[in-house]
Amino acid sequence: MDRRKFLKAGVASVVSASAAPGLIAQEMRAGVIVPVVSASDGRRGDVSTDVDRHLPVEGYVREPSHRIPVVASVDVVVAGGGAAGVAAAVCAARHGASVMLIERMNYLGGLWTGGLVLPVLATHGLGKTKDWDKATGGFCTEICDELLSNGWAVNPKDPTADPEATKYLMDKMIYDAGVKIIYNSTVAGAVMSGSRLDSVLVDCNTGRIAIRCKTAVDASGDGILFHYCGDPYEARRYHMTTLSRVYGVPSTHGPVPGMKTDGTGSREVIDGLDVMLVSATQQKHRMELWERMEQRKKEPGNEKLQLMEVAPTTGIRVTRVLDSIHNVTLEESMEWTEFDDVIGMSGVCDPFEYKGRHISRKERPVWQIPYRSLVPKETANLLVCGRCFGYDQGITWDAREISTCMVTGQAAGVAAAMSAATRTAAKDIDVKNLQKQLREDGVRLDF
Ligand SMILES: Cc1cc2nc3c(=O)[nH]c(=O)nc-3n(C[C@H](O)[C@H](O)[C@H](O)COP(=O)(O)OP(=O)(O)OC[C@H]3O[C@@H](n4cnc5c(N)ncnc54)[C@H](O)[C@@H]3O)c2cc1C
User: Fold this and answer.
1) How distant, in Å, are the alpha carbons of 49, 193, 383, 412 from that of 182?
2) Does 103 contact ligand 1 (Cβ within 6 A)?
3) Lowest mean pLDDT: which of 5-9, 49-53, 180-184, 203-207?
């Protein structure tokens, strides 16, 4: 079997093996099917729920019990340094918390930088008093303004940023805020004390270490920490896209002259928690991008094209989404719903069908995000932000955009600092005080 046929067969067999029965298919956006499977059985701290669905052979081995060294004790641990995690870590530190950020790659920004996503969408939407109103503020506006004013991004409304400049700026903000960072290390478990998270377990090149914390923020995108804590969630599926950067393009309007992003075209919906399927798809995408570029280079005028890089962060859009105290619904996002515990607002991204009518992007209102959508039902001292906080699948498109990730990240970070300082469960913090602090920090809360 040649290499191409082998891969095709591999991907096909993994797809059919992982197609779980009972999937609910829903059209969310033209051409995109988003089936959902509920994937939490409430087993606190037990990691087998996801793996069970993909076991290549039956059975388990038992890991011998061993002592794990505690290397640090901090107010707030942030799991994951994407757009949400950086916002959470910087804002928690600015509000007086000692913060440790754990990131499995060697750079910050997650999908924004490493996924080569680049445009910061959902910053605006239809306002109550203005046609095209800015929904965000605070940290999101701060970082976008900094990128734009330095010439590291183009398009003031939905800035498209140079990924290396964004990584640099995030490192600088983290450094200036006094956040301690551990790169190249993976959050690998949670030690619970009743309903409280006592320590976050991390795999690094010296083995497994423990970091004790008063409060933690799950900004991993995949909800890995709430999964380890045993909080309920929904596992969602989406298509995977691998982006790349191409050099030698005669005229582009991007942030780096001569450079353009280019992506794989497949709309095949996959389960981002199925590591074998994701790996096979990643392999297929990398070969597709290279081989397509080799073909294009043969066309007259394209001789100088060069595939500079394939995104180092895998282009998975959504996996675990928290079943929070209150998951924001599509109706709430469309009907100007005001929440007593609002912590920020999301702009909008795409048109869609709503109550039998096509709603264009310009007709879609900005929407409020309630604090309760960041709070898990079970673990007392945990907050969740970024693409895995609690929202209905109907608003998946807006809720996981980079700007909304930073809005939820900022609120989770400030709330975590407050929860750690007062030793109060996340659900019991003084939300009025949280809102006051967020307003002072420039976050927009009101329509
Ligand atoms: C192909 C594609 C195109 C998109 N296009 C756009 C667009 O044009 N505009 C837009 O606004 N949005 C777009 N999005 C969505 C947007 O990029 C993401 O939803 C957003 O960046 C997510 O930010 P996050 O911080 O929540 O998660 P992530 O960016 O996923 O960050 C999570 C971080 O946690 C780290 N991490 C994960 N697990 C662990 C672990 N166990 N231990 C330690 N670290 C861990 C990861 O390495 C990563 O750095 C796109 C997404 C994709 C995939």
Assistant:
1) 28, 24, 20, 20
2) yes
3) 5-9
Q: Is 220 in the pocket of ligand 1 (CB under 6 A)?
A: yes
Does residue 196 register a pLDDT over 70? yes
- Ligand 1 near 230 CB (within 6 A): no
My answer on whether 309 and 331 are in the same domain is no
Bridge partners, residue 160, by sequence: 119, 154
Give the tens place of pLDDT for each residue, 102-141: 999 999 999 999 999 999 999 999 999 888 899 999 999 9
Alpha carbon distance 421, 426 (integer Å): 11
pTM: 0.91
Indicate whether 436 pLDDT > 70: yes
> How far, in whole angstroms, is CA 77 from its chain's centroid?
17
Kindly state if the Cβ of 444 falls inside 6 Å of ligand 1.
Answer: no
Q: Which of 10, 14, 21, 36 is nearest to 318 (CA)?
A: 36
The answer to whether residues 338 and 360 belong to one domain is yes
pLDDT (mean) for 399-423 = 97
In sequence order, which residues have a C-beta less than 8 Å from that of residue 332 and are 6 or more positions away? 367, 368
Indicate the pLDDT class of residue 367, thresholds 50, 70 and 90. very high
Which among 317, 333, 360 is the end of a domain?
Answer: 317
Does one domain contain both 339 and 408?
A: yes
Q: Which domain holds residue 262?
A: 239-317
Q: What angle do CA 97, 100, 104 make, to 5 degrees?
A: 155
Question: Per 3-state DSSP, what percentage of the chain is helix, strand, and coil (rounded to 5)?
Answer: 30, 25, 40
DSSP 8-state symbol, 329: P
Same domain? For 245 and 357 the reply is no
Instruction: Indicate whether 101 and 221 sit together in one domain.
Output: yes
**Dist CA 447 CA 444 (whole Å):** 8
Residue that wins the pLDDT comparison between 1 and 285: 285
- Of 79, 75, 84, the C-alpha closest to 385 is 84
Contact, 217 vs 239, CB < 8 A? Answer: no
Ligand 1, residue 108: give the atom nearest the CA: 49
Atom of ligand 1 nearest to the CA of 318: 19
Alpha carbons 396 and 314: distance in angstroms, whole number:
18
pLDDT band at 62 (very low <50, low <70, confident <90, very high): confident
Of 317, 351, 366, which residue is a domain's last? 317
CA–centroid distance, 110 to ligand 1, in Å, is 5
Is the shortest distance between the CB of 387 and ligand 1 below 6 Å?
yes
Number of domains forming the structure of the chain: 2
